[in-house]
Specification:
Elements (H helix, E strand, L loop, with lengths): L1 E7 L2 E6 L11 E9 L5 H4 L3 H13 L4 H7 L8 E2 L3 E9 L11 E4 L9 H4 L38 E3 L2 H4 L1 E2 L15 H15 L4 E5 L4 H13 L4 E6 L2 H9 L3 E4 L16 E6 L4 H9 L1 E9 L12 H7 L2 E4 L8 H11 L9 E4 L3 H4 L7 E4 L7
Parallel strand pairs: 9-10, 9-12, 10-11, 12-13, 13-14, 15-16
Antiparallel strand pairs: 1-2, 1-4, 3-5, 3-7, 3-16, 5-6, 6-8
This protein binds zinc ion (2 copies).
C-alpha cells in the first residue's frame, strides 16, 4: 500500500509498504479518506537542513529540554516514516471480537493508541495508555505518524491502518456531520475543546483569552468553540491577518499584536479571563496568558515549549490561584461529547481549513506554508 512519508526533515514522498493485517481479535482495519495536518507537523515539514542541524546542536547542548529527546528520539524527524495523525476513516475489516464497529462505519481515529481499560485509560489519560506505553525508558508515546519511537502504527495518509481495541478506540462521526468538518477531531480540534469546554461548563460567565500562533489551528478552534459554547467574551490575539480573519469569522473579538519586539507582545488590557488558551508555542506566550487570568483561572498550554527551563510567573499564579495545564492531548474521552456538540450546533470547524487538497496531491499540499491542510478522497462503496 501507499503511505506518505517524511523522507527527511523538510521532504515528504509516497512510499510503498506492506498492508497492515488483523493481528488480534479486537482489531479493525480502516481506510483513511480525510486527513488533516496537526499543527505540530509543521515543525518537521518546515525544517530545512540548516535548521535541522541547529536543532540537533541545541538538543546536544541542552538548550532544548532533554524531555524532547525522550518523546521523539535523540535524532528527531530523521525519516523515513509515515507522517500524519489526524484522520477520518472507513472501517474495512473487523476482528472476530469486535462487536460495535461494522464494515463501512465512518469513524474518527484518535492520534494515540489506547486500550480503554488500563489505569491510565480509566483516568482519561488515553495518550499515556500503559498497555502501549510501557514505563520503561525509551518510549513516551504510542501513536500514528511520529515514527519508530512511537511504535509501528504508520502515518494516517495511507491506505490502511490497523486499529487495536477498535470498539474502544474508534468513535463514529455522527449522522449528518460532514467528515471534512471534523477532519481534525483526532487531535487538534479535540485538544482545543479540552482547553475550553470543561471550564466553561463550570463558569456560566466565562471570559476566554486565546493567544494564537504556533499551534495555529488549535487557537482558532478554541476561539470558535468558546463563542459557540456561550462564553461571555472571547478575545483572540495574533499577529497574522489570515488567522485573525478566521477568528473574527467565528465571532471572537480580535486583537492584532506585534511579535517583532523581544518582550511581551500583549497590549496592556484591563480584561481578565477565566480561561486562557496559549497557542503561540512560546514561553513568553505562557507568561502572558497566565498573567491575564482572573482568580481561579485556568490556562491551557497547547503548544510545544521546547526550550530548557521555560520560566513561569509562579508568584503571579499564586496570587491569582491560577492553574496551568499542559500535556499531550487525550482525545478519546472527549470525542463523544465534542462530536455531539458539533452535530447539535453545526460548529463550522472547516473555516480553519486554509488548504483543502486532493489526496493524490499530498506531496505538494501537506508541507504547504498555510494554517491548516486537509486532504481528502472519496470513501469506498462498501454497501
Ligand atoms: Zn498532533
Ligand atoms: Zn490503556
Amino acid at each position: 500500500m501507499r503511505e506518505l512519508n517524511l523522507i527527511k526533515p523538510g521532504h515528504v514522498g509516497w512510499v510503498e509498504r506492506p498492508d497492515p493485517v488483523l493481528a488480534d481479535p479486537g482489531d479493525a482495519l480502516v481506510r483513511p479518506f480525510v486527513a488533516s495536518r496537526c499543527d505540530g507537523d509543521a515543525l518537521p515539514l518546515h525544517l530545512d537542513g540548516l535548521k535541522h542541524r541547529a536543532m540537533q546542536a541545541a538538543m546536544m547542548s541542552g538548550a532544548i529540554d532533554p524531555a524532547v529527546a525522550d518523546i521523539i528520539g535523540k535524532d528527531p524527524f530523521a525519516g523515513p516514516f509515515g507522517i500524519g495523525h489526524e484522520a477520518i476513516a472507513q472501517v474495512t475489516a473487523v476482528g472476530e471480537a469486535v462487536t460495535d464497529m461494522r464494515v463501512g462505519d465512518i469513524v474518527v481515529v484518535p492520534w494515540a493508541v489506547s486500550c480503554g481499560t488500563c489505569y491510565e485509560c480509566r483516568l482519561g489519560l488515553t495518550a499515556k495508555c500503559s498497555t502501549f506505553v510501557p514505563t520503561s525508558p525509551g518510549r513516551t508515546l504510542s501513536c500514528f505518524g511520529f515514527g519508530p519511537t512511537s511504535g509501528a502504527w504508520g502515518g494516517v495518509i495511507s491506505d490502511t491502518l490497523r486499529i487495536p481495541f477498535a470498539d474502544h478506540m474508534l468513535v463514529r462521526v455522527p449522522d449528518g456531520v460532514d467528515p471534512l468538518r471534523v477532519a481534525s477531531a483526532g487531535d487538534n480540534l479535540t485538544d482545543a475543546w479540552r482547553g475550553v469546554a470543561p471550564t466553561r461548563a463550570q463558569r456560566p460567565c466565562a471570559r476566554v483569552h486565546v493567544l494564537g500562533g504556533g499551534a495555529q489551528s488549535i487557537g482558532l478552534y478554541a476561539a470558535g468553540l468558546a463563542v459557540l459554547l456561550g462564553a461571555e467574551r472571547v478575545d483572540y490575539f495574533d499577529d497574522r491577518d489570515t488567522r485573525l480573519e478566521i477568528a473574527e469569522g467565528f465571532g471572537a473579538t480580535v486583537h492584532r499584536i506585534d511579535r517583532s519586539r523581544r518582550k511581551s507582545a500583549m497590549p496592556r488590557i484591563a480584561e481578565r479571563y477565566d480561561i486562557a488558551v496559549e497557542a503561540s508555542s512560546t514561553g513568553q506566550g505562557l507568561r502572558d496568558a497566565l498573567r491575564t487570568l482572573r482568580p481561579g483561572g485556568i490556562c491551557t498550554g497547547n503548544g510545544y515549549y521546547l526550550g530548557a527551563n521555560t520560566l513561569l510567573p509562579v508568584m503571579d499564579m499564586y496570587a491569582t490561584s491560577a492553574t496551568l495545564q499542559v500535556g499531550v492531548s487525550h482525545v478519546r474521552p472527549h470525542l463523544p461529547e465534542m462530536l455531539d456538540f458539533i452535530a447539535r450546533t453545526g460548529f463550522e470547524a472547516e473555516r480553519v481549513t486554509s488548504l483543502l487538497a486532493d489526496w493524490d496531491d499530498a506531496v505538494d499540499a501537506y508541507p504547504a506554508h498555510t494554517t491548516k491542510v486537509v486532504l481528502h478522497r472519496d470513501p469506498l462503496d462498501l454497501t
